[in-house]
Amino acid sequence: MADFEAVIGLEIHVQLATKTKMFCSCELSFGAEPNIHTCPVCLGHPGTLPVSNEQAIRFGIETALALGCEIAPRSIFHRKNYFYPDLSKGYQISQYDIPLGSSGRLGEVRIHRAHLEEDAAKLSHLGESGRIDGSDASLVDFNRGGTPLIEIVTEPDIRDAAIAREWLQLLRSTLRQLGVSDCNMEEGSLRCDANISIRRRGEPELGVKTELKNMNSFRFIERGIEAEIARQIELVEAGGRVDQATMHFDPASGSLTVLRSKEFAHDYRYFPEPDLVPLAPSLELIAEIRAALPELPETRIERYIGELGIPGDAARVLGFDAAAAEFFEAALALGGASPSALSGWVTGELAAALREAGHAGVGDSALSSSGLAALAGLVEAKTINRRTGREILVRLVSQGGDPVAIVEAEGLGSVSDADALSEIVDRALAAQPKAADQVAAGNQKAVGPIVGFVMRETKGRADGPEVTRLIRAKLGLD
Amino acid sequence: MIDRDRVLQVARLARLRLDESSGEVEQMARELSGILDHVDAIGGLDLEGVEPTSHVVDLVNVLRVDRVGPSLRREAALAPAPDPAEGSFRVPSPQA
Fold first, then answer.
1. How many structural domains is chain A composed of?
2. What would the pLDDT profile of A397-420 be if each residue is shown by its tens digit?
């Protein structure tokens, strides 16, 4: 079987979280009554003039800098001409030959360019099926028309679908950390297209690519890209060739369909937008924005692994979740528990407890950072065992409180008196002679009933590893 | 001189209907060629060291503060529309 590799590049459109549109002062909204946020500018009436939104430019520079791009000292807007009902003016104002940012990198993926443009209006297609084909009329809602967008185009550096999804998650958490967008894929504030081609491994030339449009969840992106790679490989192995096309992935059926192409779609006849003067951000402004950038997920993950010695998986979870990371660092700063232990609590037991309680984040819960620090410290010092720790954590999440006081008031401390524990283990071995024989004969799993006996006797407060150690010692195994 | 097919293609892209029987296509071909010849003449000049001019005014960074202003009432926005429906601009489906 021929050995193929996929070559994937992504184009991501991100709606910027400004208050108003890119070129007029209409309010941005999602889910509002149709056509209540429009004006002559965003409706494209003749004689109106666009004026760029300062905050959108600033968000654009922030994003480009966070992606390691060079900022163009002078960039201009172009008109991208095509006719479609979602485009009031007959052209979209976008950037063309000189984008705001270029030549960046995020993670392992190079960024080709990042440029500013305006979003189109929202089209709803009427008709029985609700699908675009076969409906004979459409409704246009211009509330969305003119929303500021940054389009981010990667180099074709991605080789499989899972990496595409992971990288997009890194991008999303980076943009959220910056606060430039809420990146809500369901509401369309982050939209992703993928350019996909295949080639035989070792082949330097790129194959013919297809474009997979508008996938609206991370899972669909991964599945859609997987399906398209499989389709292309099957086609080529059967002696066919890939044709340039725009594809749509239907997550319900898992099938891919070719979208009918817009006529002359690629003849956009760009020319400089005469109604907008060039953008020339000063070096001072760029330096000021660069200095104010927050720590970004990629840097945070590296710091957690490199400086704090946190395991990679936990570091990535914290890296992607700014709120969890902030809570973790607040708890860490109080001392009393190691970074590894604390990160384990935040990404493990705490994440599970929050999910169970239906909280979106730790901010919704009653738990304080000092509460978690104290709890992790109690467990690390073996004052209480991990199981008791988990139970207390669930209480702290719902009611808050001081774990040290809870442990004292309710006598939850581990049975750490060596003599007392030793005596209980003796009784356990006597009560479970069959299990004791099996353990002695080398069957590790048989230890369960003996440990269970000890836990019943101590009401779950014995330190598990210590109990196991005592059992093995008493059976002459160590 | 640009040819007839090119004129018709540009007209299609611009959604312009040219009357092919009245000589409009030929007239457009002549006029467009004149414009292109003029651009060619400029292209023949020695412009070494001259920056391309995308804008004739010497201004940069004309920006607007991100503050919400009034929008049109919906009835006013939809008033010029030939076929409004459900608070929206109803149009023939672009894919039908």
1. 3
2. 999 888 888 888 877 777 666 778
